Amino acid sequence: METTLSFLLRSLAICFVISHPIIKALSHPEFPCKPPDHNTYAFCNTSLSIQTRALSLISLLTLDEKLQQLSNNVTGVQRLGIPPYEWWSESLHGIAGNGPGVSFSGSVVAATSFPQVLLTAAAFNRSLWYEVAAAIGVEARAMYNVGQAGLTFWAPNINVFRDPRWGRGQETPGEDPMVCSAYAVEFVKAFQGQKGKSEGGLVGKRVLREDSEDGLMLSACCKHFTAYDLENWGNFSRYSFNAVVTEQDMEDTYQPPFRTCIEQGKASCLMCSYNQVNGVPACARKDLLQKARKEWGFNGYITSDCDAVATIYEYQNYTKTPEDAVAAVLKAGVDINCGTYLLRNTKSAINQGKVEEEDVDRALLNLFTVQLRLGLFDGNPIEGQFGKLGPHDVCTSEHKGLALEAAKQGIVLLKNRIKLLPLKKAGVSSLAIIGPSANNITKLGGGYSGVPCSPVSYFEGLNTYVKKSYYASGCTDIPCNSDFGFKEAIHVAKKADYVIVVAGLDLSQETEDLDRVSLLLPGKQMSLVSSIASASKKPIIVVLTGGGPLDVSFAEADPQIASILWVGYPGEAGGKALAQIIFGDYNPSS
Question: Which one, 51, 117, 243, 498, has the greatest CB density within 10 A?
């Protein structure tokens, strides 16, 4: 019979579950080498060398089983106790849902959203870059432990931001090969759990692997190799574009970030790009791919960008048949295809004598070597070094504080006439915040964003500093094709003591598969800014969002626009960071 105390405890537990609906039972990733039936294979024997274990596994596979390994979405080998595996997870500036390896449906429903890479890079702080990547790595491994992410992530993007119209420049560390190189080293070392000069600090040393120099906590991937900085512009598409690059430009500009990423960062993955380089598809450039392995010492796997093998035949018409495309990339050194092209066409390529089984074995050796370095065949990962990481290590106050710090360090003050900034909190009776992204948390992250933990809009952040605030969008969206909202915005501006206009870009203007055709503010945004500046009692503050350069010479020349700040895509803490800078709690770069 139930006692009064047990009844009360049960009732309290039920109430707790009802009031906390996002709490879910923890699940764990499937793993090979499970006892008692599948842990006696040589590839499960941790006393053997990684190469010996990888070769042993390859020797046990049939040809059809081998071919199943050549796609990002790998079918398991049930008879050997090897579960399916998804190679494609994303972690550019926080765990993102772009790849099928990541899910936010489970015990982890969000992850820390750090600033987009270009903004973090603008801090010019290698220690910060390391700490951010280490924090992302902790959350990635924690999500793996509950079955919501893989162990192999396709970041960082270290292409040089050469063309200011490029839609993905926001994802990169910028236009300087030296900065891109330095960022690559810090990100890869921290994310993979390798020791670096910047270890410790906010994240600590708990993530660093102890067993050997070859061990990996996670795998990072330097992409996109190489000379890639065009999406879809005019008559050109990234799927068929031929980048004509001189030998000097290749050595001075495009290759240094990748070389450094491999030689110093010890990246365990390299992704080849869609485009051709001097007439040959990047994924078929044996000279470049083998240079990475033989001269730079690359020890990892090479993946194509998604469907980049298919584009060789279908878009670029570089080969006469699909089998020729398969042969070209496998012979060049590609190990895995994001997509199913190798999966569907390699066997026929073998039957036609264009590919040998040994070519497949070479690819599998690289793939299994990385998985073994990750500890994937070492037994239950929950019992391993990183097994205690879990939901409590995601969206921590520590990581959210780091996201705020990264945003503050990256934001740049471009103009400050009459020393308008910082505003004195006691001297601001009211504030108007105007702009289509001023009160929209979905605009904070930029490309390759996940589900943020605690996003704060610009309006929300600034609102905490003043007693009275007003908001108007001005434009209905970033394209701003109508001046319908101008009247309300001007009315709000006239009422307020100080005015902040948030203008700039979002993913409707710049993103993967979308380049810009102009460096001006989209649509009627320039007119909105100028109209507000004319109507305001005092000179205004303009905040520029986005990851691409903008021509705001009109604002620079306007005396009614006293201050201009660039905030890029500042991540979930963007509203807090902007408010702290505007009200003088933090001094920005200039």
Answer: 117
pLDDT at 191: 98
Catalytic annotation on 305?
yes
Q: Are 228 and 162 in contact (CB under 8 A)?
A: no
Read off the pLDDT band of 496 (50, 70, 90). Answer: very high
Decide: 292 and 332 in contact? Cβ < 8 Å. Answer: no
pTM of the model: 0.94
For 387-416, what is each residue's pLDDT tens digit? 999 999 999 999 999 999 999 999 999 999
Tokens 């500036």 -> residue: 93
What is the distance between the alpha carbons of residues 158 and 526, in angstroms, rounded to a whole number?
Answer: 32
Contact between residue 115 and residue 403 where contact means Cβ atoms under 8 Å apart: yes
Contact 499, 432 (CB under 8 A): yes
In angstroms, the CA 229 to CA 515 distance is 10
211-265 pLDDT tens trace: 456 899 999 999 999 999 999 988 899 999 999 999 999 999 999 999 999 999 9
Which residue, 236, 233, 224, is CA-closest to 306? 224
Rounded CA separation 230/173 (Å)? 16
Place of tokens 């306007």: 558
Band of pLDDT at residue 323, cut at 50, 70 and 90: very high
Q: How far is CA 385 from the centre of its chain?
A: 25
Task: Let me know: does 139 contact 146? Beta carbons within 8 Å.
Answer: no
Note whether 258 and 222 are within 8 A (CB). yes
Tokens describing residue 395: 């969206």
What are 458's two structure tokens? 């610009």
Question: Could you tell me which residues come within 8 angstroms of residue 79 by beta carbon, excluding any fewer than 6 positions away?
Answer: none
Residue of 229, 305, 324, 515 with catalytic role: 305
One-letter amino acid at 556 equals: E
Which of 162, 34, 44, 22 is CA-nearest to residue 453?
22
Q: What's the pLDDT at 234? A: 87
